Amino acid sequence: MDAAVAQTLFLAVSLFTLLILFIWKSTNQGDKLPPGPTPLPFLGNLLQIDTSGTAKGLMKMSEKYGPVFSLYIGSEMAVVLSGYEAVKEALIDQAEVFGGRGNMESFNQTVQGFGIAFSHGDIWKQTRQFSIMTLKDFGVGKRGIEERIQEEAQFLLEEIRKTKELPFDPTTFFSQAVSNVICSIVFGNRFDYDDKEFHHLLKMINESFCLIGSRWGQLFDTFTNIMKHLPGPHNRIRRCFAIVEEYIAKKAKQNQETLDLNSPRDFIDSFLIKIQQGEGNSSSHFHMTNLIKTVLVLFSAATETTGTTLRYGFLILLKYPEIQERLHEEIDHVVGRQHSPCLEDRKKMPYTNAVIHEIQRFSDISPLSLPHQVTRDVHFRGYMISKGTRVITLLHSVLRDPTQFSDPDSFNPGHFLDENGGFKKNDAFMPFSAGKRMCPGESLARMELFVFLVSILQNFSLKSNKHPKDIDISPATSNLLSLPRFYEVSFVPR
Q1: Confidence (pLDDT) at 423
Q2: What is d(CA 197, CA 154) in angstroms, rounded to the nearest whole number?
Q3: Transmembrane ranges (predicted)?
Q4: How many CA atoms lie within 13 A of 240 on its CB side?
Q5: What does the alpha-carbon distance between residue 157 and residue 173 come to, in Å, rounded to a whole number?
Q6: In 249-403, which ranges are E strands?
Q7: CA distances (Å), origin 476, targets 48, 211, 221, 372
Q8: 41 belongs to a structural domain
Q9: Alpha-carbon distance 423 to 414, whole Å?
Q10: Using one digit for the tens of pLDDT, what is the confidence trace for 113-141?
Q11: What is the model's pTM?
Q12: Looking at the domain assignment, is residue 198 inside a domain?
């Protein structure tokens, strides 16, 4: 046997041995680890996951392996929790231990461990507590922000009137309206709808989220060390966020030059004041970098998620004109045509409230949620999950849990109505996640959805160039975000 053949044989045997060791390590660690599909070296279980509809693929896996199962994302083991009971037990009953944040390099290459989404420990606690309190100071959850949303609704209605009943894609209008509300808080001002800089910022936010949820984004998150050296669309993610960061940094510098320590004008002012108060305190995590990353997350996440929910909601109403008609009847009866809808009206509008909840449940905007991480070794449902393990809380499986919703795959406002037609809460309604990492903008998003949707239906009827039976309300993509299919709508004055 010559040297070349011997070398080839040795390499083949070595690779085969490594393969056997990898499979043994992955599948033979006693009964402590959750069950799951057998992974391949390097790839893990990626070939077994439907990347065009990851959440549904994982739900299908849970039918075989149960509500708690393991999954290898590349060489990293993650634990998937499926169904209301398992997710509730983790995020609510054991909130502290499941309150860590798993890494997503597509985001973290930008936020770098700062801000309120992908930070940990004291940075996260200080930043989140400050952000929630400051948002409240600027009216979130109170009458103050409701008035801002009502004012923005009037600007949105005026833009819709300019379309003169012609069919158009409402994506930009909805994004602008929703974004202007958070802009008024973090920047202290709103943008005109024809502002080119505003359009560019929203385009960068939308493009970055679409790329993160694409196959390129998934490959980057899984094989970061390789993908960061390769060309491809995934490299646009950082560039898109960088453009938004540059704008935030410019606004922060402008605010610094005119800062009044006794009279903060917006979120940025409040953060700048906190920075000055923490100077010389080594335990403070308030500095310019954290300010920029925090505002980036607030601005981009609030814009993309609520704007997409509105867009999905109006597509659903085009599909079901009978639901639209019932909404018109309740709006006319409770709100009328004269005054702007307010949260006090919502208490008297059970059907409208149920429809909005069902839009959020059915559209399932964040089907995988952001990844969690256990903060210590924990026994969970008979299995051992080691400290630092990534945990995927499958919100899709909660919002589509047949034990909690009678017909989970159909759009049915009855899921949130009792036998007398009154509004009925459901604990499995978790579009904003739950526990320690629950979305801090929940109350703002709920206000926006109600005021914007009711304001539009108060003034317009919806018309499509397609017959309702031909309208497809299944998601176009469903990974990081569930996005509705492209559609056009005509708004006809009532």
Answers
A1: 97
A2: 22
A3: 6-24
A4: 21
A5: 10
A6: 372-373, 378-380, 383-385, 390-394
A7: 21, 14, 22, 26
A8: no
A9: 9
A10: 999 999 999 999 999 999 999 999 998 87
A11: 0.91
A12: yes
Element (H, E) at 333: helix 321-334
Q: Report the distance separating Cα 297 and Cα 49, nearest Å.
A: 29
Cα distances (angstroms) measured from residue 63 to each of 59, 139, 397, 411: 7, 44, 11, 23
What CATH number does residue 161 fall under?
1.10.630.10
The pLDDT value recorded for residue 278 is: 84
pLDDT tens, residue by residue, 23-58:
555 444 445 899 999 999 989 998 888 766 688 889
439 is in an annotated binding site: yes
Nearest-Å Rg of the Cα atoms of the chain is 24
Q: What amino acid is encoded at 334 in this protein?
A: V
Q: Give the range of the structural domain holding residue 300, as residue numbers without chain letter.
A: 51-493
Q: How far is CA 208 from the centre of its chain?
A: 13
Residue 13 lies in a domain: no
pLDDT of residue 390: 96
Q: How many domains does the chain have?
A: 1
Which positions ≥6 away from 481 have C-beta within 8 Å?
A: 209, 213, 304, 305, 308, 365, 366
Contact 394, 299 (CB under 8 A): no
Contact predicate 345/334, CB 8 Å: yes
- The span from the CA of 253 to the CA of 268, in Å, is 10
9-23, 251-265, 341-355, range with the lowest pLDDT = 9-23
Q: Are strands 76-82 and 68-73 parallel, antiparallel or unpaired?
A: antiparallel
* 333 Cβ contact partners less than 8 Å away, ≥ 6 residues apart: none
Q: Which amino acid appears at position 171 of this protein?
A: T
- Using an 8 Å Cβ cutoff, are 42 and 15 in contact? no
CA distance 389 to 68: 13
Domain presence at residue 42: no
The SS3 assignment for 40 reads: strand
Residue 283 confidence (pLDDT) above 90: no
